[in-house]
Structure formats: structure tokens, C-alpha cells
Amino acid sequence: MDFFNEIASYVSGLSSVELSYLFVVLFMFTLAVIDLTVGVSNDAVNFLSAAVGSKAAKIKHVLIVAALGVFVGASFSSGMMDVARHGIFDPGFFTFENVMCIYLAVVISDVFLLDLFNSLGLPTSTTVSMVFELLGASFITALISSGSSGLGMLNTDRALTIIISIFLSVAIAFVFGLVVQWISRILFTFHYRKNLGAKIGLYGGFATTAIIYFMLVKGLKGSAIVGYLPQDFHDFIYEDTAFFLLVAFVFFTILMQLLHWCRVNVLKVVVLMGTFSLAMAFAGNDLVNFIGVTLAGFESFKDLVANGNGAVDSFTMGSLNLPAKTNVLFLIGAGAVMVYALFTSKKARKVLQTSIDLSSQQNEENELFGTSSIARNMVRAVSKCVDAVSRNTPAGVKRWIGKRFTPLEEREDVAFDLVRASVNLVLAGLLIAVGTSFKLPLSTTYVTFMVGMGSSLADRAWGRESAVYRVTGVVSVVGGWFITAGAAFIIAAFVSSIMNFGGVIAMYVMIALVIYLLIRSHVNYNKKKSTEKVDEKMLVVLKSDDQAEVWNNLMLHAADTLTHTLAFSADTYKVMFESFSKDALRPLKSSLIKIVEEKSFMKKERRAETRGLQRIDQQLAFERSTWYHLCTNSCQQMLNTLTRIGEPMKEHADNSFSPLSKVYVDEFSPYCRDVYNVLKDINEIIQTGNYEASEEVSARAKNLKHSLANLRKEQTMRLHQSQGSLRMDFVYLNLIQESHELLSEVRNLLRGSNKFFAPLNEQ
How far apart are CA 549 and CA 538, in angstroms? Predict the structure, then answer.
């Protein structure tokens, strides 16, 4: 009760201006909590992908290890909060009002950017987001308040150093990942369980020492926990680091060799230790990206209340140049929020899946990205270089290297093995630690992602069948990082300029807009997830070891896919004719977009179901695969037919040509209804599995084809006698012809499905 009385007394002592900014600060805290959850969704991939992709432990155990690292790192966060206070700009030149415009613009822009990338399933850098948002907001604020002379208020040298080191780390991490993984694979091969021997002690000792070094240098140096270490031990670690690392290497080499002899999987130990250390470093050093700006705004408000006398437009914020002294309760609270987000965020799993899929050893995985001309040209150029090197390499050397890179028949649910997982974690930690020792702040997202991409390339995970997809994915992700920088700068500058000119009122308007957009984003994301077409649970069932179970579930899955496409085709066909008859352009455009999405859906489902066919009895697969492919080809052709119907209609309506005449509308409407009914009836037959009426429906479709053929002849004769719009006549003729083709394909689908879904004793 006393606590609430103190709060009430404090609030009652504030002026009206201070009260208005108190609400802004409270809203920034709310956004900071959102930013923490969104940021964990984005950055979880940094420390989870290696352990999850290699199945080093059950995912719940991996999450527990990572959560411990996150909580420890956040609770003993190092003094990185100064970056938000005075790392990018000199607060002594800015008034309280200016500083609040900058900080509010940063948190608003940050939430939107991270939420956008997480919804797309793409990892991005929270460090880059914060740096460029601070730079953009402070840049425009300096220009507004002081004109061109205001650029001297920015710490441009410091900002440039951060930017260059961040983007340079992309190339460095990729090259080191490629080289180190190639050497590791030469040493251990894919048959690493038979090639560990005495090497595993040395490898485990080196890896563990590297992780310890990473934890001490990057994770804990400068943090509060270091202050509790005995002075002698502190000096031993940080003053005589080389000797400390030598002792650690000898100790852990012996320990890891002993563990190996005791049949403990040393590689799993290394992977889990690496997961903990990266999670701890992420929370300890990247926490400033999520709450640093909000805490700086809170400290600014406290300084205003204590010393500013409500002069928001003249009281300067030189106090922010002092070192940050963050309340430990804020750090513990932030750690708790991050742990909660780590266990509950669905978006984190989506971003994680992107990174794992792009580095997966399983070339038959569903590719998340298509192809691009850049990727195709890069793959073609690299293939030529590889072929040239191969021609000039002695045959004996090629055979020896080829044996070292011959993959095992691994479990299908393992994206890569423990050797690559340990390399990813250890190397990422080392690169970040080395960068820190040279005072170069590196992005954990960029380093860990690019190390993973380089190691997967060295491991030959990018085969000829998947390379172009993987390269497209990497280019998309890296391109997204550069877009992040520009977007962060522009958005923050735009939001800050509005608030600088509009004052507190503009801040409140932006806050209301943010609340609305966040709610809409959440609703749209849930809607998208609820209508997700890929049945992940079914795809897991298809990987069962029981061939009979796989066959039964494959039939259920295939039936769902076919009926989905049939229902879509029937509805789209009807919508397109009715829209064209009413000269409505928007539904035609929407239908063509949905057809493209449906084609992508069909492609993914067909790939998954083909993998299921490979897992059933060989004789059964031989008997049924022909009919399955007939069904899927028919579905694909149906969608192509709908495209050929819709594109001329859309072009005709888009150019505002003469609409379809009432004579043609009345003439074709019965045919449209009959085609629609045939598609719906066949859909019901496949859905129920009752093919008793299949012959009757097929006969109706055949008769309807004859009727359309006669109508086509009649329309062809009209073309020679037409006095009206030839463009309209040709579009109408195209509709008749493609409707005829649509019926041919749906009859093939009915015949193929009857054979494919027939009971096993019938054929």
C-alpha cells in the first residue's frame, strides 16, 4: 500500500508537461517489452540453429540450456547501454524534447522492422536496426534544430566504425566458415564416429577453450558478475589471458578425452556449451538493442523532473554522457521476458527454420525460396570454376577427398551432423570474441548466419539440385540486411521529423498509430497461420518407419491436396466469368494472384507426397505412382488453364475495352454453371472416396465437352461475320476453348484418382 501511495505522491507532484511525457515513457516501456519478445524471435536463430539442426538434444532441453544462458547474460549485462545514451550522438547538444523524439522514433521503428522480418521468416540484425535508427532519428533532429551545423552533434566516426565492422563481418564469417568446416570434414569425415580416436580430445579441448574464451571476453567482461570474482582470479583471467587459455586447453583436452573413453558424446557437450555461451553473449551484449533506448529515455525523464523545471525545449541532456548505471531489477525483468518469449514465440521457430533449411544436408527438403537470375549466374560461374579446378587436380587426390566427403545415410530429420554444428558455434564465438578484442562490434546475427552458410557450402550441402535455391535464399537474407539499414534510417528519420514539428501531440498520434498497426499485424499474422496450407503434422507422419501407416496417411494427404485444388478451381472459374461479365477488374486481378499461390502450394505438396511414395512398398509404389502423377499433372494443367482464361480477361478489362455483351453472358452462363457443378461433383467423389457415381459424372463432362465444341464452332463462324468488337469475340472464344480443356483435365483427374485411391486388393 505504501508503494502505491509513493507513486501517487510522485505523480501528483509532476507538472502537466511532465505528466504528458511520463505517458510517453510508460509507452516506451510497453514497446520495450514487445521489442524484447520480437527481438528474441529474431535472434533465437543465432544460438539455437546448430543444436536444433543437428539434434544434439531434445528441443526442450536445448531451449532450457539457451534460456539459462539468456537469463544469466541479461541479469549480468555488460555496460553496453552507453551505446544508446551517447554512442551515436552527443546528448549534451540536444534538449529533452529532442532526445525524447529520437528515442520514441527508435522504439517505434524497431518494433515494426523486426516484426516485419520475423513474419517473413528472415533473420535480421537488431544491432543494425538500433544503430541506423539512432543515426536516422538523431540526424534529422540535428538538422531541424541547428541546420547543417548540427551534423557536428553526431559521433560520425564511431557510427562509421560500427557500420563498416558489421558489414565486413558478413564476408569474413562466410569465408572462415567455409575453410574451417572443409578442414574439419577432412579430419573427421562424415563417418566421424569411427574417426574420433585421440583427435576428439584435442578437438574438444580446443573447442571448449574457445567457448570459455568467448564467454569471458565477449560474454562477461565488464559485466557485474566479474566484480564478484576474487582479485587474483580476475587478474589471472584478464591480465594473463594467454597463460589462462593454455591451462584451460590442457585441462579440457584431458577432460574431453576421458569423457570420450567413458562413452560420452563429446560433440554434443561442445554443441550445448556453445549454445549456452552464444545465448549468454546475445542477452548480455544485445540487450541494449531492446531496452537501452527506453532506459535512456527513462533516465532523461528522471533528470528533467529533478533538474529541468519542466523546460523540455531548453533543458539539455548532458547527463546522458555519464556511464549508465542500470537497475538490476530491469535486467532481471528483461531476462525473464526473453526467456518467456524464447519458449512461446512461433515466429522464432519460423526464423529458425529458414536458417536450418538453407544449411540442411538433406537436398530433398522443401526449399523456402525460388530461384533468381543472380543465383543462377552465380551457381553457373562457380560450377565452371569448380570443373576447371577438378580437371587440373590429380585423380588420386580427388578420390581421397571424395571419400572424406562421402555422406552417411543420416536420419531424415537431421539437417546436419554434430561436427558441423560444433564448428558453427565455436567459430562464431571466436570471430565475435576476436572482433570484440579489436573493439569492433560485430552483429551476432550476421556472424552466426554466415558461418552456417559457409560451413554448409564446404560440406557440399548445396548440391546441383538445391544450390540455386540456397544461393537465392542467402542473397535474399543478406539483401534484407542491407535493406534493414536503409529502412531503419529512413523510417526513424521520418517518424522523428513528424514528432519534432508536432511536439507532444504528434507523439500521441504516433503512439495511437503504433497501437493500431500492432493490433492489425497480430491479427493478420494469426489469420495467415490459421490458413497455412502446408500440413506440417502430416509431413512428419509421412516419415514413419511403418510402410502401411505411410501409405494410409499419404492417401489422406493426397486426397486433401486434390480436393483443395478442385474446390479452388471451381470457385475461381466461376468468379472469373462472373467478374468478366460485370466488367469488374479487381476480382480478376485477385484471382490471378491466388492462382500463382495455388501453384506454389501444389508444388510443395507434390514434393512432400513424392517423398512419401518413396517410403512405401516398392511394388505398391510402382503400381500407384503413375496414377498419382496423372492426378497431380491434371491439377497443374487445370491451374494453367485458369491462368489462360483469366489473363486475357484481365487485360481486356484493364484496358477498358467493350465489356462482354449480354448475348454472350446469357449464352455462356448455363455452361459456366454446368462446368462448376462437374468440378464440385468430382471434388465430392474424391473427398468421400465413393466412386459409384464417377461414370455418370464423367459422361456429363464428356457431353458438356461436345456442347462446348459446338459452341466453339459457332463462335468461330461469328468471328467472320462480326460487326462488333473483335477483341471481345476473341476473349469469348478463348473462354470456350479453355473451358473445353478444363473438362478434359478434370476427367483425367477423376480417372487417375479412381485408380490411385483404389483398395489394395483392387487394381
Answer: 11
